[in-house]
Write a structure and sequence with these properties.
Helix content is about 70%, strand content about 0%. By secondary structure, it is mostly helical. Pfam families: Sigma70_r2, Sigma70_r4_2.
Length: about 180
């Protein structure tokens, strides 16, 4: 999880207080998973509706935020399984819009083009591969934690990550060949 959020203390906090405090973070997480701002909002809304009903149990868990983030991941994977056609679109979201403030200076148009390219390439991945990359690189989780979340072995996580990265590299190389 992001530094400082996984161990956040939410005991004694009402659901409404939790939702207000964590909504922006949950929405950013869902946007990165889905690649679609509207779908991310739907996923988070559905999860928060279910979390509200279960808040007493969730707030008593070791890490309520981790619990809810796992619900977001499961909801994303569930939605992806029910689609008959892949519906992840490049939405033009830039990482800067997602509060990624690494202080990089450069041509803003280049950043938008790079982000759009990344969204398009991520949209070609299957749901588990995409989830593995998001959990590893966006959430900065270790393979053991990812395997626990996805209900698989660490070797499967490494394999999914390697296949996803290989596919992204191939797509990038194909794109370079087209433009040169």
């Amino acid at each position: 999880m992001h530094a400082g959020t996984a161990g956040a203390v939410f005991s004694g906090v009402t659901f409404e207080e939790f939702a207000v405090a964590r909504l922006p973070s949950l929405l950013r997480y869902a946007i990165v998973l889905t690649g679609d701002h509207d779908l991310a909002q739907d996923v988070v809304q559905e999860v928060l509706a279910r979390a509200h009903v279960r808040w007493r149990r969730i707030s008593g868990s070791e890490s309520p935020e981790a619990y809810v983030r796992r619900m977001v991941l499961n909801e994303y994977l569930s939605w992806r399984r029910t689609w008959t056609v892949r519906r992840v679109f490049a939405v033009g979201e830039r990482l800067a819009d997602l509060a990624d403030t690494r202080g990089k200076v450069g041509d803003p148009a280049e950043g938008v083009a790079d982000a759009d390219d990344l969204w398009r390439r991520l949209a070609t991945l299957g749901p588990k591969q995409r989830a593995v990359l998001v959990l590893r690189y966006y959430e900065q989780m270790q393979d053991e934690a990812i395997a626990d979340l996805l209900g698989c072995r660490q070797a499967t996580v490494r394999s999914q990550a390697a296949k996803a990265l290989r596919k992204l590299r191939l797509l990038s190389e194909q794109q370079v060949r087209i433009y040169t």
